[in-house]
Amino acid sequence: MTHALTRTKQRLAGCPNDAHRVTGCVMQRHAAAVIACCSRSGVLALLLLYGGPAGVARADLYGSPLGWPLPGRPPVMSGAFGEPRSNHFHAGLDLSTRQRVGAEVHAPAATWVERVRASGGGYGRSIYLRSEDGRLIVFGHLDAFSADVATYVDSVQRATGEYEQDLRLPAQRFRYAAGARVGWSGQSGAGPPHLHVEVRHGDFALNPLLAGLSVPDTVPPKLERLVLEPLDERSWVERGASPRSYGLGAGADTLLVEGRVRLTLKASDATNASRKLPVRTVGARWGDAWVECRMDSVSWAGEMGQLDWLVDRGRVTGSDGVILDAPAGWRPRFLRSSRPDDAAVELVEVAPGAPARPLELFAIDAAGHEVTRRIWLRGPGESERGPARQASPRGAPIRHSKRTRARTPTTAPLPRWTFAILPDERVRVRVKAAPAGLHDVRIERGAARPLPEDVAIATWDGAAWCAVLNVSGIPD
Question: How far is CA 54 from CA 114, 227, 284, 340, in A?
Answer without folding.
Answer: 36, 21, 10, 18
